[in-house]
Design brief:
Number of strands: 9
Radius of gyration: 19 Å
Strand content: 25-35%
Order of helices and strands: EEEHEEHHHHEHEHEEHH
Strand order of the largest sheet: 5-6-7-3-8-9
């Protein structure tokens, strides 16, 4: 791991408990990822693409510490800086009983590295609202009073509150209409350019992947089948599955 590497994953195997209750299967584990490895440089945007069930979200959840049953190694440059995650469905990610101002401050209240004063929290909230391009008046609203795009902006804001070095966006625009998708992608691109934040962008939309990423990892059945610079992979796919995905997306012709 060199000085510019922000994240390194080596030979990662992830397991789930079998939830079936039969006598013979209740203690059996199901393997979800097989020998996954990747390396990210600071400021890089890495896209992880593949069909549903390919292991994209499992990989993301393991990197942020949600999945803990694994073998292999996950090394982060900044061990006290937990990667932050933006999920697909912004509504289910937000506590409906709380107002937006309270939700934005929650990462600061639980920050183990710094004790934030009320004034510092207010200043940080104002900074983030400007970053995600929403008016301060929305702080008094509940999630149900916001549109889908506004809720996803709030989720991005919450993830950015403690200025993480790595942001993981798991299908962050797939639940939004096309116009709002473009706006959220533009926001992520602007934040990336302004702060140099590293981003893992998970998507099944290969056109979006091409637009936003420096490198792309193609996954199938819990395994990495192709990994390289996005342009190289798209122009000269080495694996048949990658070719199939690009053809299905209309990016390369039959």
């Amino acid at each position: 791991m060199n000085e510019n590497t922000v994240l390194e994953v080596e030979n990662l195997n992830v397991f789930y408990k079998n939830n079936k209750s039969s006598l013979f299967s209740q203690n059996k584990k199901i393997q979800a990822l097989f020998d996954v490895s990747l390396s990210m440089e600071e400021g890089e945007v890495l896209a992880i693409a593949g069909e549903s069930g390919s292991g994209k979200s499992t990989l993301a959840r393991t990197i942020v510490g949600i999945n803990r049953d694994y073998t292999g190694r996950i090394t982060k440059k900044y061990e006290n800086d937990t990667p932050q995650m933006v999920f697909q469905d912004p509504y289910s990610s937000l506590n409906p009983a709380k107002k937006i101002g309270w939700l934005l401050k929650e990462p600061l209240r639980v920050d183990r590295n710094k004790k934030w004063t009320a004034t510092e929290m207010d200043i940080r909230v104002k900074e983030i609202m400007e970053e995600i391009e929403l008016p301060m008046s929305m702080l008094e609203r509940s999630p149900a009073q916001l549109s889908g795009g506004q809720r996803q902006r709030i989720c991005i804001g919450i993830a950015l509150m403690r200025s993480p070095k790595l942001l993981i966006a798991d299908e962050p625009v797939s639940a939004l209409d096309v116009t709002i998708q473009a706006q959220i992608l533009e926001l992520l691109e602007n934040l990336h350019k302004k702060h140099g934040i590293s981003i893992i962008f998970i998507s099944h939309d290969l056109r979006v992947v091409y637009k936003i990423s420096d490198h792309v990892m193609i996954m199938k059945d819990g395994r990495v089948v192709e990994y390289g610079k996005t342009r190289d992979v798209y122009l000269n796919p080495q694996h048949e599955y990658t070719s199939q995905l690009l053809k299905a997306a209309g990016i390369i012709q039959e």
